[in-house]
UniProtKB/TrEMBL annotation, chain A:
It holds the Pfam family Fer2. The keyword Ribosomal protein does not apply. This is CDP-4-dehydro-6-deoxyglucose reductase. It comes from Lentzea waywayandensis. Keywords: 2Fe-2S, Electron transport, Iron, Iron-sulfur, Metal-binding, Transport. Belongs to the 2Fe2S plant-type ferredoxin family. Its cofactor is [2Fe-2S] cluster. One of its GO terms (molecular function) is metal ion binding. Residues 2-93 form the 2Fe-2S ferredoxin-type domain.
TrEMBL record, chain B:
The keyword Protease does not apply. Keywords: Aromatic hydrocarbons catabolism, Dioxygenase, Metal-binding, Oxidoreductase, Repeat. Homotetramer. It comes from the Bacteria. Signal peptide: none annotated. Belongs to the extradiol ring-cleavage dioxygenase family. This is Catechol 2,3-dioxygenase. One of its GO terms (molecular function) is catechol 2,3-dioxygenase activity. Residues 5-118, 145-265 form the VOC domain. InterPro entries: Catechol_2-3_dOase, Glyas_Bleomycin-R_OHBP_Dase, Glyas_Fos-R_dOase_dom, GlyoxalaseI/FosfomycinResist, VOC_core, XylE-like_N.
Amino acid sequence: MLVVTVVPQDVQVRARAGESVVDALRRHGWRSPYRCRRGGCGACRARLLSGRIRYPLPVAESVLTPAEQAAGQCLPCRAVPVTDVVLDIGPHPLRAVLASTPSPDPRPQEGL
Amino acid sequence: MAVIRLGYVHVRVTDLAQARQHYQETLGMDAVHEEDGRVYLKSWDEDDHHSVVLEEGGVGLVKFGYKVTADGALDAIESKARSFGATCERMSKGDNVGVGDGLRVTLPSEHVLELYSDVDYLGTRVGKLNPDPWPRDLRGIGVPRINHALITTEDPALLERFFSDVLAFRPSERLVASHEDSDLVGSWMSCGDQPHDIAFVKGANGKLHHFAYEIDDWSALLRAGDVMSMDDVPIDFGPARHGITRGGTIYFFDPSGNRNEVFSGGYRTGPDFRPITWTMDQAARGINYTHREIDQEFLQVVT
């Protein structure tokens, strides 16, 4: 698993494969600044200080322009780490939350 | 002449397949047409061709349409819009699939508003002869119809005057920073007997805050919340009651980050309705009467 570090709060969590930065933080009980959690509003905008990310789903250029991306800005709600990453998410404190991600399919699997 | 209701909302979505999943399976709309990276959808209790258009590429509002009566209303509105100084042009049958000739107006807030009376009639899913109260095969929330949109504008007072003078809307509720007209922060305006058919608050021009679906009541609202949890739809806030309009609400986001609302209740209004005033110190109660607190971002986050 990849290590996600956010500063200036200096919080480290591990991200599952394909998991966004925001979802990894939520799963570990941290509520970072975000609003739509779908890449549309830009409320989570952050700066990628090191490492690489990818966007499995397209992000609107009106929200994050190619120039902004090139300058290191990213949207943590949609950004999935490819390597260990360090992000500056701004001075807003992280809020401790108990967040539930979608539950796995509760139906019994055949053969179990 | 009269504007009847919000007819359609045309929004951009970053991923059409994900958007379809949300609008068809979670909300329960039906796709009626698809071409050129656009999907046209209708809710089960709507008669006209479509009420939502999803267009792949980007996020936010392309335009929205209001249906008007077929008694020369378009000509009258065009003349008033031109006197107001707004840019308008005639739109042709087929510019929008299923929609006939009409009028396209650029609002003082830079939003594109289309007005039309001629639109293909598809009918509701329950029909008009001895109908059942709802169709048996609804999916997800099963929204019956769209209800209103809330947009942002740099100059709420100017936009209120436009909707009043050109389109004969009436303000039901007004959010004010002072008694000065220029200090109008938001206005909720009606063209029929709903508390609002359009609303706008101060913010960037050309942006969409949300568009809303009407649902039956508080129970339907809570059930809608259940479906949103099942489908991991991000909730902005709710279920809660609005002070403004007295409606019940859940605000949530589509897979591109466009804000949607399910809205229930609200009072009846009419031509003799005297506008309600909210002051800024009570704005949180006006927007979320239940919790009396909203994040600053609630009003700033738009697409």
